C-alpha cells in the first residue's frame, strides 16, 4: 500500500492519539496534500518542524496499529465483503439461479443488504 494512503488510513483510525499539532500536520500534509513549506506556513512552524512532527506522528500511528491492528482487520473485513459480493454475483449469474427456492433468494438478498449496510457504515 502506498505510504500516503497507509498514513491516511491509520490517521482515520488513530488520529485522536496524536497531539493537536501532530494531527493538524498529518492532515495538512497527507490529506490536503500540502508541501512541507506550505504546512509550515499554515501552522507557523519551520519546514524542519513539520518534518519532525510528521516523523513522530507516523511512529505513533504505526506503533498503535502494530499493537491494535484495527486498520489491518478493517482491510481484511472489507476484502471478505468483496469476496461475498463476488460469490453472490456468481450465484445470480449461474444458469441454476432461476430455479433456486424462494427462501434461498430471500437469504441472498438479506446477505446483500447486510454487506451494503456495512459498506455504507464505513463511509
Description:
- With 123 residues, the chain is an all-alpha fold.
- The chain has two domains: 3-68, Orthogonal Bundle (Arc Repressor Mutant, subunit A), CATH 1.10.10; 72-121.
- Helix content is 80%, strand content 0%.
- The model has no long low-confidence stretch (mean pLDDT 93).
Features:
Arc Repressor Mutant, subunit A, 80% helix, 123 residues, mainly alpha
CATH superfamily of the largest domain: Winged helix-like DNA-binding domain superfamily/Winged helix DNA-binding domain
Secondary-structure-based class equals mainly alpha
Would you list the SSEs in sequence order as H and E?
HHHHHH
Strand content: under 5%
Number of domains: 2
Class of the largest domain, according to the CATH hierarchy? Mainly Alpha
For the biggest sheet, the summary is: none
Q: What's the total number of strands?
A: 0
CATH architecture of the largest domain: Orthogonal Bundle
Shape: elongated
Low-pLDDT regions: none
Number of helices: 6
Mean pLDDT over the full residue set: 93
Give me the CATH fold name of the largest domain: Arc Repressor Mutant, subunit A
Q: What percentage of residues falls in helices of 4 or more residues?
A: over 70%
Radius of gyration based on Cα positions: 21 Å
> How far do the termini sit from each other?
20 Å
Short account of what is shown:
With 123 residues, the protein is an all-alpha fold. It is 80% helix and 0% strand. The mean pLDDT is 93.
Amino acid at each position: 500500500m502506498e505510504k500516503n494512503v497507509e498514513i491516511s488510513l491509520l490517521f482515520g483510525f488513530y488520529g485522536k492519539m496524536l497531539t493537536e499539532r501532530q494531527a493538524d500536520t498529518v492532515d495538512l500534509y497527507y490529506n490536503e496534500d500540502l508541501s512541507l513549506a506550505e504546512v509550515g506556513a499554515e501552522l507557523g512552524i519551520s519546514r524542519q518542524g513539520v518534518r519532525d512532527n510528521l516523523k513522530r506522528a507516523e511512529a505513533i500511528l504505526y506503533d498503535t496499529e502494530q499493537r491494535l491492528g484495527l486498520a489491518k482487520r478493517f482491510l481484511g473485513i472489507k476484502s471478505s465483503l468483496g469476496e461475498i459480493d463476488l460469490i453472490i454475483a456468481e450465484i445470480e449469474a449461474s444458469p441454476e439461479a432461476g430455479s433456486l427456492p424462494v427462501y434461498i433468494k430471500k437469504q441472498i438478498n438479506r446477505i446483500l443488504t447486510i454487506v451494503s449496510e456495512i459498506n455504507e457504515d464505513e463511509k
